[in-house]
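U., I forgot to send this yesterday:
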Amino acid sequence: MVNAMDSAADPSGWQAQKSAATRRLILDSAIRRFVELGYARTTTTAIAEEAGLSRGAMLHHFPSKIDVVKGAIEYLHSKRLKAFRRAMSRPIDPTEDRIMLAVRAFWEHVQHPMFVAFFELSVAARTDPELAAILRPSQEAFEREWYATARDVFPEWENAGPQFDLALNLSRFVLEGMAVSFMTQADAAQGERLLVYLADKLRELRSSSP
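Result:
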C-alpha cells in the first residue's frame, strides 16, 4: 500500500502507480470480455463497463479498441509465461515424475481463460489484417520466451539437441489442440489417457537423446 506521506512527497510516483493499476484493470477486463463475448462483440464500452470505469476514463489510457487489444496481447503473453514458469519451478519431490508433472502443468495452462482469450484473438486475426499484424510479432516473441523458459526449467534436457525441440513442439501442439477440442466437447477419461500417452512419448524422446 502506498504511504500517504510518500504520496504527498512524490505525487508523480503515486500517479504513475495509480495509472499502472488502472491499465492492468482495463487489460484484465478486456481479457475477460474476449473470453465471454468473443473478439468481434467486445467493444470499448463493454470493456469499460467490466472495469467499472467510464468509457472516457478508459479511452484516456487506451484511445481505441485496437490499442486495448495490443496492450492485452502483451499483458496476456506475460501472464502466460509467468504462470508456466511458476508451475514448473516449484520445489518437487525427487521421486516425482517431472515429465508427467510438466504435461499436467501445461494442460492446466491451456485450459485457463488466458489461453481461451489468446485462442479467440488468434481465430479473429485470421480475417482481420490489423489484428493479425499485432498478434503475429507478439506471438513470435512469446514463443521465443516460452522456449527460453522451458530451457531454464528443464536443465536435464540441456544436451538433448533436436529431441528437446521435438518434445516441446509435440507437447504444445497436442495439448493446445486438445484444449481447443475440449472447449466444445470434454471427455475427462479420454483426456487422461492422452496425457499419459504423451508423457510416455516424451520419456522415449528423453531416453533416445545423448
